Amino acid sequence: MRKIFLILALILCTIPAVAREKLTLRCWGDHGVLWYDEHTEVYYVSRTPYSARKELFTFQKLDQWDSKYYTTFFMPSGDVLFVFDTQFEGGTYTEEQIAAPYSVEIDNIHRRNPIIAVAAEGYAQHIIDFGDRLKPTGWLQNCGPHFSERYQALYFAEYTRANLRSCNGWKVSGDLRNPDNWQIKASRPIDFPYKVGTKHFHTAQEDPFTGALYYTTGDRNAAIYASADGENFSQLDKDDRAKWRMLNAVFTKDYMWWASDDWRRNHHFWRCARSGNGIIDPGKIEDLFLFPDFGDGDAKATYGNIYFKKYNAILFLDRWDGGYERFNDLPVYLYDIDSGKMIHLTDVHRSKACPTDIPWGFRCRAMEMHPKGDKAVISFDSLHPNDMYLPGNENGRTDVRNVVIQLKKKGKADYELVFKAL
């Protein structure tokens, strides 16, 4: 018997801690960080990504879907909003439905009502019934929603697929349980065949220096919409996939900065100055850098522009959007704003457990875009797995859910990037 216990103890001691990791960071809020266990559907909160977690509630499948199929937002009130992400439902329209004039009824075929967990009611959960109105769908997992303190409203951008007829930018204010308070501020029809034009919205963001708000769309018919008052939005410039196809932007006192979510000749790093009304002026856009082109099949795009205010530097986290056996290395770049220098920091590598014919890289469940110090956290789950050789993922495993990125400055425009499991 003693021998059996010794063997069990030895086995348990050799299992890395990360292999037992269960929780995934879902999103940040004004008063904390939201986590969940996708196997038990239990949600937790912590003050920071590094502090102790407290259990909040267990998600109830009021509409028969697990919560991982919803995008999630942690409201300033403490309420948790779940918006169904229709891209995971699948389904296609008939040729007759595509050819028919647009109607909310057709567009609603695959849309579902959102759910809210109300903090003041001990996180009791309610379906927000939109009736015959157009129901919202979810945003891109690591970007797409923004709560504006200035306008006291949640803005979000629908990340739609070919099973919907429109993509929209929403504003939600007041009581979230009242569908009258959900307003569409920008909208586009989805083009068919699906991949030839407008596919979805990408993000909603606010310029903290001026209060200007932006929505962006993708992919080939990429556009940017702007508002100076949080209420009235208009398209700024003609469609341009190299310029306006972005997942998020960085704002500083003088400029808006971003790397494009596109490949090869369209994969640029841009900055743009503002006009007199506080909105960027497309006539003042500057092309600062063209990311290296690795040739035919290169489908490398930027999925996160992370601003380290401590260093006044922007980190670019990319993803291989296409799966090709010969592309096993993913370069990571940093732009030092003070020196105006683009730095190739390191390369990350595809995990052995990741098939060579699928996309891989930094397409994350959540991503800390504005870290307070020299560390940022990114998270993965079963829908967006960690498929890279990062610490804890050696020997072909992909079980690290939450990864800390630490940016260390060694000298002027000289940096080191360190990855470690949280």
Report on this model:
The protein is mainly beta. It has one domain: Prolyl oligopeptidase, N-terminal domain (Methylamine Dehydrogenase, Chain H), CATH 2.130.10. The protein is built from 4 helices and 29 strands. It has helices at 2-14, 95-99, 104-107, 241-244, and strands at 23-29, 32-37, 42-46, 53-58, 70-74, 80-84, 115-118, 124-127, 145-148, 153-157, 166-173, 182-189, 198-206, 213-219, 224-227, 234-235, 250-251, 255-259, 268-274, 280-290, 300-308, 313-320, 329-336, 341-349, 360-361, 366-367, 375-379, 402-411, 414-421. The strands form 7 sheets. Strands 21, 22, 23, 24 and 25 form a 5-stranded antiparallel beta sheet that branches. Strands 1-2-3-4 form a 4-stranded antiparallel beta sheet, with no helix packed on it. A 4-stranded antiparallel beta sheet has the order 5-6-7-8, with no helix packed on it. Strand 26 and strand 27 form a beta hairpin. It is globular and about 60 Å long. Mean pLDDT is 91; it is low at 1-20.
Summarize the structure.
Helix content is 6%, strand content 41%.
Task: Considering the chains and any ligands shown, give keywords for the structure.
422 residues; mainly beta; Methylamine Dehydrogenase, Chain H; five-stranded antiparallel sheet; 29 strands; 6% helix; disordered N terminus
**Strand fraction:** 35-45%
| Fourth CATH level, the homologous superfamily | Prolyl oligopeptidase, N-terminal domain
Number of structural units classed as domains: 1
What is the first-to-last residue Cα distance?
Answer: 36 Å
CATH fold category name = Methylamine Dehydrogenase, Chain H
CATH class assignment: Mainly Beta
Query: Do you know the CATH architecture?
Result: 7 Propeller
Radius of gyration: 22 Å
Task: Decide which structural class fits the backbone.
Answer: mainly beta
Q: What is the overall shape?
A: globular
Overall mean pLDDT: 91
Summarize the amount of helix as a percent range: under 10%
